Amino acid sequence: MKQLLTSEHTMVELAGSPRTCGRQYGDAMAERMEAFLHAEVTPDAQRLRYAARCWDVLRRWDPAVVQFIHGLAEGSGLSLVQVTLLLLHEEVEHLKHCTAIGATGAATRDGAPIIGQNWDWLSHLYPWSHLTRLKINGQPRALFYSYPGLWAGAGLNDYGLSFCWTSGGVWPKVKPKVGIPSYALIAGLLARRSCAEALTLLRRTRNAGAFIFMLADVKGALVVVEGVPHKIEIMPVHDIATRATYFESPRMCRLSRQDLTSKPVNPQFRGERIAAMARRDAGHIDAARVESYLRDERETSVRSVCCQPKDDFRWMTLDSFYMLPRLREFWIARGSPRRHAFRRYEV
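Above: the chain sequence. Below: its structure as tokens.
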């Protein structure tokens, strides 16, 4: 086997009160946030009006997240509405991305939970990712996978609560509503200590967009949450969970009007592929096997779990990562996991 390249990510270290941490992040990422804002969610009048309405809801939501956002605006020089528009990236852009895997209990080699994913986006977004280590006074320490202004993209905290996700509500595209942006919601979830606490927050939140969340904790809980604007479906999992950007719960399929029966979509190949591999290894799933799932490449297209650009297809796996809640470990491979080794980080 060829020697894999070293995985390297910029690490942003933040410590202090929520507002102080937000200000530190905004100051460190000011130019990148400005560039990412205009490159990804260009702030036209219609989008800014939508973001302003979401901010009016968000500012009354989780106090620590709200204070972080205030600091983010102060440090970056962007307005609160512009920062909110950045946080609405999933709702505004709504890309059909990512493949996720989770296992726990009798499905894993040691009974301990494990979750992870390939983060698949358009190839021009490859340079933007980084990691953020957050130490907010009075909250669990956390390690996040991040993009400029989207400090909490996925990750885990020092209680072992772990989070990854894929998009949802894509066939057809579900229109967002006024509510809490997905990226703000993730930050709030990863300030909780367990799946149970995270679900309590989710139940009282009016989410703005559609998503498929996967959470695990140190007690072995594994939960998939599928959501459309203002509605969620919570599905506890006792062995294996896999997702690839399309809903699997009947209720979410009905609410989103998702219909994949007449014409298969490419993510179904990814979803069926990773589900088959996980079922084959039931009882023996461990970190090495999860790495092998995320490296899977039958062809250089979206039909593989590991996506690579080909011809006019410009999607790719930007990063791959998985989390071991009981060890509080985050493992990530920069770029394609077929070319880069997974590197371990602790919270």
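Residues 33 and 148 are 5 Å apart (CA to CA).
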